[in-house]
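INFO worker-7 received task bundle
INFO bundle size: 2
INFO processing item 0
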Amino acid sequence: MSKFKYAFSFLILLVSCKSNQLSGKIENAVEENSKQIIKIAFGSCNKHDVTNVFWDDILRYQPDIFIWGGDNIYADTDDMVKLKAMYRAQNAIPAYAKLKENVTITGVWDDHDYGLNDGGVEFEAKKESQEAFYDFMGLAKNDKWRKKEGTYSTVSIQKDFGAVKILNLDTRYFRSTLKQSEVKGKRYEADSDPSKTILGDAQWKWLERELTNSTAEFNILVSSIQFLSSEHGFEKWANFPKEVEKLKDIIKKSKAKGVIILSGDRHISEFSVDKNFANPLVDFTSSGLTHAYTSFTSEPNRYRVGKVISTTSYGIVELNLKSKEVVFKIMGDNEQILEQYKQMY
């Protein structure tokens, strides 16, 4: 063989070795990344009978879990035949069915899938609706979460560098009647009656216990209604200010790490941040999946960071268990990032 052929063969071998080394490094980096990052996708306010455009994007993202943020269908009925038919129709959407086959699903309900617009404790079909909701979420008939009143639950994701605990809050089943507002443009106003509640006694005890005993690197509270945004006149935690203070106190006293709130309901998406905690408390609102408040112009929110997104969107939360950095993203169609926020914990 000529010297040229020897040199050419050596060059091919060298390039091949370098290529294999590079490929190995990339594969190792991807594997390491998958061990330390937990990827969450979530969204709310979804109609089964209009085009659902985001499921293929979410599936391509390959999240560790998808979280429903409430108003997962728009039923507004105490007729369980109708409500269950809507859940079946949502499950039958091909792209969503494929997501369910490949990704863990969890979440909460809000008023429209609960069955009563702005409804709470007074809804007479809530027990039947709870069963239908659990069926939609795919819980086994003998699952422990079915044995209590209310749809609150816990899901944990464990990886090599730690865990994330997801606490799904039920803001409907026990919630006291709202106080109507006499101010034009506002539906409701703050009610300081100490007997009024959002979560109810049993759920409050469960939540305090779960946060106090948590060893997770991050603790995600899923609330169908906004927690931090308090100046608008619609449904929100601030309609019950004593409940707001109670949750803030529990978060602080529990010393739970990396507490984050995910919320829905509003048909807008935004980041709200309260810095009066050991780590800033982020309330990431993502709403809605199929319809949005497109005529939105402005609304006060002293906790807001960045801009309000008033087009359809879904949310992504990427939690780095090693570096303790969290990236929050508001996503549009075709995986477009509409707004982003980062927080170290």
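INFO item 0 finished
INFO processing item 1
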Amino acid sequence: MTDPIADYLTRLRNALMAKHKIVEIPASNLKKDITKILFEKGYILNYKFEDNAVQGNIKIALKYHPETRQPAIKSLRRVSRPGLRQYKGKDELPRVLNGLGIAILSTSQGVMSDKEARKKSIGGEVLCYVY
């Protein structure tokens, strides 16, 4: 697999479109960090890391509106790809939907949202947009 982050986002997107309650994704440290950010920002209901012999899995409980059954995540978009990396400095950090969504960045101080990176005044690689 050449782009595991794109695979992660696609599995989430497909599970949301199919109205699944839980999705299982092969784990990596970067995917675990992205999952933690999605949980902290309220885009997913819960998550659980399962360590198997080799790689392990991430079980994610997806979040929907209780009455309309609309998913909490409207869009997941991969920004930086293996063929075209997107790096932004501290002054160029993107604002997703004027601050209603989040951009997830990989920085020298770890994976964080765009708001945290602005607060710490650091830039990095823009991994994806979520809203």
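INFO item 1 finished
INFO post-check item 1: The chain has a mean pLDDT of 95.
INFO post-check item 1: Strands lie at 22-26, 44-50, 57-62, 76-78, 87-88, 102-107, 110-113, 124-130.
INFO worker-7 idle
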